[in-house]
Write a structure and sequence with these properties.
- The protein is built from 40 helices and 27 strands.
- The longest helix has 28 residues, at about 760-785.
- It is of the alpha/beta class and about 950 residues long.
- It has 5 domains: about 1-65 and about 170-225, P-loop containing nucleotide triphosphate hydrolases (Rossmann fold, 3-Layer(aba) Sandwich); about 70-165; about 235-295 and about 490-610, P-loop containing nucleotide triphosphate hydrolases (Rossmann fold, 3-Layer(aba) Sandwich), CATH 3.40.50; about 300-485, no CATH class; about 695-910, Lambda Exonuclease, Chain A.
């Protein structure tokens, strides 16, 4: 065996092509490196045989199993079945889902022992002799997993299968080549088994050469390893040193933008971005594929088949947990996806797909605005929401069909079935025409079906609870599909200047310019993995690979890639709150280069804005409707008037000269004209699609409103005495039962969170509210009506025709035109007596006296129904009976009226001023100026 170390100044790709002679075999660290070398070689049109293998492929060629192998979920299923109940309990494995992560660590551990040629008998002997000290829990843990391994081996051998952990050893090496020149190309770490493979290759008459690049080895042919990479010596030995720059930013988005800003000024060829997380990050969308080489494949999880199966699984689990109710936040999440809506779309009349999707979201918005948290079949028997009804019922049909399956054959029969999940209807046109999604899916399905066809599982009741077999089989299928890759054909050939790679795949490459992203501790270098059985010192003593070994190879491949370039730029960011720090590799690099000239090393911190990177031309290309860049003011400084919505009375109020306000809208107008114009006048309020399943103040309020409109609503009218109120409110136990009935009513059933015990929750809510109402009656209401005749007017469920009408509060003259202010309100409870009127508004949180003023005006004062001194009003906090606020006096009402008139006159003259409170700004963060222009007719 020979060792050859080439200096970093020589190109490793050129060396590889020179070594690729007839009857030579080249072994590369990764499959991508082997494929690339093979493609480069084929361009020479030399058809003589050469072998290009990755380390993994070489192992498969040299060590062949005598029996078929179990992989992935098949081995996990068998492992789960052989574990005894006590063993599962010891490792906190209570169902199949719990074994996925644990089982992976289990197999990884035994594969590591195989890789380092550590026999189980040697391990047990070391432990028993005291040569390898372990804590008591480790000894117990080890004995248990050895017992599980033994039972697993017996079980799968009886079925005619084997596993990597049973055949992967030096005794099974069989070399198919003789008299060949075999080159290992710049592999940093060699396991014990890989060294045994090298020995077997030489013993078979082959000539093995270990090629390294700027990396010395030590030892002899029997026992050797690479030396630690010396960065200082390697830097000094370079004939031509690269220019190196370190850029620090505030976060990863700034990191991407700063690179793009930097790249605008560069003329690049043979360039690479090193970022193992690139395709998982949102900032990857900033990089156009014309200039950055993105893969011609994507994860199967991004395809519509996986998405729909996942949607069915999510719905199935949710309805199982809530006794048949589907959370609206799940429905809203999927209805926000066009692919989901398109599947359930059936063209009817003139309703096109876009209109269908808009109608779906409109109808769902109604339910959310009604504070519904759930839907079910029964809801749509009465609710007039035909478009949403059709989708929900079909979605339920899919959920129920998959929930009933008992085996894989039944599951397979539901897929691509005209009566269930129709793939042709599901797939997007681009998926049908330009991808291999269907072949990939059916190949995975065939592998999945093999679980039953090979007899690995006789009954799924052995693994899953009988009532959840369908859900668990669907989850199992999704796990099978997760690792799939969908390839696609591009419409046109692209020749991007930048390659996207990672430290692993680029370890033998050289680039003229290399940009390292995510140079933070935990990514480059990677963070240590959690301890599983043995700690780092024990692993080192045993001969297993340690975190220090991994860190050393990452350091070497990073430094090699950097030093072999002409120009390198490293991007990092720091966030102390999230414990994000710059890479220690950069610290070492800075120490090395601190005395170098400026043209070789720079470090700077920068802040880049999106318009700096994407100029108007790119935005104009992306949003062709916005032909006038003034709409978004992209290329000019913003003046103060940009933050004021201009007043245009004729356009804003074209129908008549009356400006109508509800009580809440008028208060909003006084507090924040800008927000009023957006949310109330323009009807551009943000729709909250979350519908969180929580007990909120609003839920308490809704229960009370329902109570007033139903139970108390039955008492509406004239009463001679307070006796009937005493019967209703005076008995707290009876009151509690009535509130329980309200909470369990059909109206409230879709508003009450299902993630609590329904009976317990009902009791808690009813008790709290009954105590509040009892106190309200005893402390206030009884004193007002005792011994008097009165009319009880509780809030009705629906707004009455009379309450729909607005009443004139005042007038403002502007621009030779008279503008009338109209108001209306809807109070929770009113009580009218001779020469006295009472208004009660129940609250669960904050309150504003102006609301009571508006109610007093609307119901009694504007029409002179009652004298000002005969009208009183009160806020009553149902969650805090001590928090009650009596109404207002005539002076306050007059002052408020003048403020309203002055405010309107000011807005008509000067526009609707900007928001001042941060909370109000957040309410509008998803509404753009373009939305306002569109609503006013500026965009067609």
């Amino acid at each position: 065996m020979k060792f050859i170390n080439y200096p970093l100044s020589e190109n490793l790709d050129t060396i590889v092509q020179e070594l690729a002679k007839p009857d030579s075999i080249l072994i590369f660290p990764t499959l991508s490196a082997a494929k690339r070398a093979s493609r480069e070689y084929l361009t020479n049109w030399d058809l003589s045989w050469r072998g290009f293998y990755s380390m993994e492929e070489l192992r498969s060629a040299l060590i062949l199993p005598k029996q078929p192998l179990l992989t992935d979920e098949k081995r996990l299923l068998c492992l789960f079945m052989v574990m005894e109940e006590s063993e599962r309990e010891s490792f906190h494995i209570y169902n199949y889902g719990d074994i996925v992560d644990w089982g992976k660590r289990f197999f990884d551990f035994f594969e590591e022992l195989c890789e380092e040629c550590i026999a189980l008998s040697d391990l047990e002997e070391m432990a028993n002799s005291g040569a390898f000290p372990m804590q008591e829990w480790q000894e117990i843990y080890l004995q248990k997993i050895l017992n599980i391994r033994s039972n697993y081996q017996k079980y799968i051998n009886a079925l005619g299968f084997s596993d990597t952990i049973f055949y992967l050893n030096a005794d099974n090496i069989s070399v198919p080549w003789q008299n060949c020149d075999i080159y290992y190309i710049n592999q940093y770490y060699y396991s014990g088994l890989e060294k045994q493979q090298i020995k077997a290759l030489e013993d078979s008459g082959n000539r093995v050469t270990i090629i390294t690049h700027g990396l010395e080895t030590e030892g002899n042919a029997e026992n050797w390893k690479v030396k630690d990479f010396n960065l200082q010596e390697s830097w000094n030995s370079l004939k031509k040193k690269p220019s190196i720059e370190i850029i620090e930013t505030d976060n990863e988005t700034q990191m991407a933008l700063s690179f793009l800003s930097w790249n605008l000024e560069q003329d690049c060829h043979n360039c690479a971005i090193i970022d193992s997380t690139f395709h998982l990050k949102s900032y990857s969308h900033y990089f156009p594929e014309e200039h950055f080489a993105k893969p011609d494949s994507y994860s199967f999880c991004e395809g519509t088949i996986y998405k729909m199966l996942s949607a069915i699984a999510t719905g199935l689990k949710a309805t199982k947990d809530t006794n048949g109710y589907l959370p609206i936040k799940i429905l809203a999440n999927y209805i926000s996806e066009d692919w989901f809506c398109r599947y359930f779309y059936a063209e009817q009349g003139n309703l096109k797909l876009d209109d269908y999707i808009s109608q779906l979201r409109l109808e769902l918005g109604f339910l959310i605005n009604w504070d519904y948290l759930y839907v079910d079949y029964a809801l749509f028997l009465t609710a007039d929401l035909p478009t949403l009804k059709s989708l929900v019922w079909e979605y339920y049909n899919l959920i129920n069909a998959f929930g009933k399956i008992q085996n894989l054959k039944e599951l397979c029969n539901l897929i691509d079935s005209p009566n269930c999940l129709q793939l042709n209807k599901l797939l997007e046109d681009n998926e049908k025409l330009y991808t291999d999604i269907l072949p990939v899916f059916w190949e995975r399905m065939a592998n999945f079906m093999a679980i039953e066809n090979l007899g690995l599982v006789n009954s799924w009741k052995q693994i899953f609870a009988e009532d959840s077999i369908g859900l668990n089989l669907l989850d199992l299928l999704l796990n099978f599909l997760t690792t799939g890759k969908i390839s696609y054909q591009r419409n046109e050939a692209l020749t991007p200047e930048w390659e996207i790679s990672n430290l692993l795949d680029a370890r033998n490459r050289s680039f003229s310019t290399v940009a390292f992203f995510q140079m933070i501790e935990g990514i480059i270098p990677s963070s240590p993995t959690p301890v599983w059985l043995f700690n780092e010192s024990q692993r080192a003593k045993l001969g297993l690979k340690t975190f220090n070994d991994i860190r050393n190879w990452e350091r070497y491949y990073f430094c090699r890639l950097l030093l072999c370039s002409e120009r390198a730029i490293c991007f990092s960011y720091i966030n102390q709150e999230r414990d994000i720090s710059s890479s220690s590799f950069l610290g070492e690099l800075e120490e090395l280069l601190k005395n170098e000239e400026l043209d070789l090393f720079k470090k700077r911190k920068i802040l880049v804005s999106l318009p700096d990177v994407y100029n108007w031309e790119l935005v104009n290309k992306t949003i062709p409707e916005l032909e006038d860049q003034e709409i978004c003011n992209i290329n000019k400084d913003l003046t103060e008037d940009f933050f004021i919505i201009p007043s245009d009375p004729i356009a804003d109020f074209p129908k008549n000269n009356q400006i109508n306000f509800s009580a809440s809208a008028l208060i909003q107008f006084l507090k924040n004209p800008f927000l009023w114009f957006v949310e109330n006048k323009s009807k551009l309020s943000i729709q909250n699609w979350e519908a969180e399943e929580t007990i909120s103040y609003k839920l308490f309020g809704n229960i009370m409103h329902t109570y007033f409109s139903t139970t108390l609503g039955e008492l509406k009218g004239i009463h001679e005495s307070h006796t009937i109120l005493e019967t209703l409110f005076g008995n707290s136990k009876k009151l509690e039962e009535q509130l329980k009935n309200v909470i369990a009513s059909e109206k409230m059933i879709y508003q009450i969170p299902k993630n609590y015990n329904a009976v317990f929750l009902g009791e808690i809510l009813a008790k709290k509210l009954s105590e509040s109402l009892f106190f309200f009656y005893q402390d206030w209401l009884k004193k007002q009506v005792e011994g008097r005749k009165f009319i009880l007017i509780p809030e009705e469920d629906k707004i009455s025709r009379a309450e729909m009408k607005h009443k004139q509060l005042g007038k403002v003259n502007w621009g030779n035109k008279e503008y009338i202010i109209g108001i209306r309100g809807k109070a929770d409870l009113r009580i009218e007596m001779e020469n006295k009127a009472l208004i009660v508004d129940f609250k669960t949180g904050s309150h504003d006296y102006r609301q009571l003023c508006i109610y007093e005006w609307y119901y009694y004062l504007l029409d002179d129904v009652s004298a000002p001194n005969d009208v009183s009003s009160i806020f009553w906090n149902i969650l805090d009976p001590t928090d009650k606020v009596e109404g207002v006096n005539e002076e306050k009402r007059n002052k408020l009226k003048q403020q309203i008139l002055d405010n309107l006159e000011f807005c008509l003259a000067n526009g609707y001023s900007t928001i001042t409170k941060a909370t109000d700004r957040q309410r509008l963060q998803n509404i753009t100026r373009a939305d306002l222009i569109s609503r006013k007719g500026g965009l067609k």
